[in-house]
Structure formats: structure tokens, C-alpha cells
Amino acid sequence: MQPVLTTLFLTTTAFLEARQDVSNGSSTSAFVQTTDDGIISFAVTAVQQTGDLYFHLEAPAKNSWVSVGTGSRMQYSLMWMVYRSANGTGVTLSSRTANNHVEPIYAPNVPCELNNETGTNPSGIVDHNGQKTFAVNAVCPGDSMLNFDNAAQDFMFALGPNDRTINDDSKRANIRRHSIYGAFTLDLRAATVQSLNDVDQVALAAVGNWQIKNAKLVGGLKNDLDWVLIIHVVFLCGSFVILFPIGVVFLRVLDKVKWHAYIQGVGLVLIIVGVGLGLGASGQYVHSQSTTSAHQVIGLIAGALTLIQFGLGLRNHLIFKRTLTPTMYGRIHIYLGPLVLGVGFVNGFLGFNFSGAGYHNVVYGLVSGAGFFVLAGLLFWNARRKAKKAGGSRKDWGIKMGRIPTNPTTATDVRATV
């Protein structure tokens, strides 16, 4: 009998202590996690009487955005996303939802707002231990869509890439895929108070003093990278700026017709794969789902022109092997080539701007400009070299530029394989 009474006493005591915590104004549950970019902290206090949820969020501001969401999956999660406001010193809080593993969209029916209560630290970008930090105090009034009796409520968190910033007052700002993410549980029961008067808003708004409490990391941290877009950029920019010009050099300078064909064929395959990856990635982001932007339309045109260009060269070559006669396909092929390279080159700039990575345009422009300068120099040098070797006459100059045939075999073969 005594063990039973002892157990009952301990159970009752634990229950009363739990209820006392619920009515204690300092009741909070806090998740704190160190990442490669800095520390992320998320603390909450829930109000049983009104259903309000107060939370405090801290994260390194060198990341373009930070988000905490309910549940263990993105699908149907309610996410609180934060990024810099237009002035660069404030923050924008955007409540968002997602129906799959895609960019979350703004949910205007979720009335969560910044909570700049008098006497508390205001939300914004603050300096903490020499690091710029997102410091956010917010409240979700009324139905918070959470069960405050849940001792292990699932949450997710994510940090955006740190190679760019977002400065926007709009709650619908475009974001890029996260670079770090993870999951955790939080005891909402221990973080619940009875009324608004019990919420210690000053303590909840404190910056930099948080320790993990009534929370647990689930599954460890995960690093992430948008490999699809990276491969898309490498394949397309690499083909138009590097691979195709090298193919031209093999034909015009080194007189390697087969190698020219092989290189341009590989480039065509990379273009097709790159365009496919770009179309697939478009579905992940709100601003690109319609496929109507200049970059997307021109990209599809450039891909089609590349396919036509390869087909013209192949068709002309096959006919020439039978007839040893130049064809209309070869003439079109000669002049279409520079156009294809130019369209692909320009679309690279549009693509970086479209993805919010316009700062890459400087490097892209320098690399592309250097490549085309080298190509033009090699073609000019090769034409001069061959003209001098042939005697330097204007006719010889035209012959070596592929404009005036010396004999059906040589001239037409050049035209057939450009």
C-alpha cells in the first residue's frame, strides 16, 4: 500500500508543479542550435486563455533568410520566415505555407505580426558578439493552429544561402533554397501561461542569453545545396561560353573536323540536359513557375536554335559526302553559329539576374569576354597565317576565310562542318 501512496503523491506533486509552471509568467520553451553560420534560437510562450502564441527568433543575419515552421515536413506547414527589410536594418516577418517541397508562399490569412511591445528590445538587425543577428519578437493572435498540451510539438528550421541578401518590405519576397535545415521538438505545455498578463515579454525579447529548454534536436543538422540550378548554370554557360568556341577553334584553327563535330555534339547534349534541369527547377520557385520571363523564353529559343544548328551541320555534311557540292544548309549553318553563341551568351546575364544572383554577372562577363576575345584573336591570326602562306593575295585571303573555294573538296568540307 505504501508504494502505491508514494507513487500517487509523486504523480500529484509533478502535476501541481506543471500547473504552477503554466501559470508562471516566465514559462518558456526554447530551442538553441549552433550551425556553421551561427546560432539559431527559437523561444515561445503560449497563452491558454486567448490562444495567442508569442515567440522570439534569433539567427545569423549573414544568411539571406531564416525560417521556423510547424510540423516535421514542409507540406502544409505554417512557417514564419524572416529577412531584412528594405532599409537593411529592420526585418520583415512573412507567414508562409507550402503544399510540397517548393518555395513557400505568403499566407495573408495568418495574422502573425512583429511584437514591438513598449519596454522590449525592438525587432531588427542587431550586433551580438560581433555578428549581425536577426532578432525577432512576434505574436500570432487567436487560433495559432497548435495544441498547447503537446509536450513534443514538431518544428522545423532553415537558413537561407549566405551568398546573397534580401532587402524587401514585401511579405511575398522571393527566396532561394535553404543551405542548412533541421528539425526539433518543443514542449508547448511547459511554455503555456494562463493569460496575457502572465507573458514576460521583456524576458522573451532578450537577445543572446538563450539556452535550450524543454526542446530537443531531431535527426541532426543537414547541409543543402541547390545542385539542380548549379548544374543548369555550368552546363549552359559552359557550353555557350567555353565548349562551343573550343569546337570552332578545332575546326578553323586546327582543321580537326571530327573533333569539331564531337565537341559540338557533346555541347548539344549538355544544352538539352541544362534546359531540362532549368524547366524542372522553375517549378520549385514562385516567380518562375509560369515560364514566361525573358530568361526562360530566350533560353528555350537558344536551345531550339542549337538543335537546329547541329541538324543543319549534320545534314550538310551527309549531303556533301555524296555530292561533293555545297548546300544551302551549310550556308545557313555558317551564319547561324555566331547568332546562337550570342543569344546564349546574353541569356546568361538574364539568368543570373532572374535568380537573384546578379552579382555573378561581373565574373561571368569577364570570363566570357576573355574567351570570345581569345577566340576572335585565334581566328584572325589563323586567317592571316594561312593568307601569308598562300601568297597574301586578296583571293587567297578569301580562300582561307572559307569564302572562296579553291576546289570542291576543301572549300565545301569546311562549310559542311562549321
Structure, described:
The chain is of the alpha+beta class. It has 2 domains: 202 residues, Immunoglobulin-like, CATH 2.60.40; 190 residues, Four Helix Bundle (Hemerythrin (Met), subunit A) (Up-down Bundle), CATH 1.20.120. Helix content is 43%, strand content 21%. The protein contains 9 helices and 14 strands. Strands 1, 2, 3, 8, 9, 10 and 13 form a 7-stranded mixed sheet that branches. It has a 7-stranded antiparallel sheet with strand order 7-6-5-4-11-12-14, with no helix packed on it. Strand 5 and strand 6 form a beta hairpin. Helix 6 packs antiparallel against helix 7. The protein is elongated and about 95 Å long.
CATH topology of the largest domain: Immunoglobulin-like
Q: What is the H level of CATH, i.e. the homologous superfamily of the largest domain?
A: Cellobiose dehydrogenase, cytochrome domain
Helix coverage percent: 40-55%
Mean pLDDT, nearest integer?
86
Indicate the overall shape: elongated
Structural class: alpha+beta
**Tally of individual domains:** 2
Protein name: Iron reductase domain protein
Transmembrane segments: 227-254, 261-281, 293-312, 332-350, 362-381
Domain Cytochrome b561: 231-352
Signal peptide: 1-18
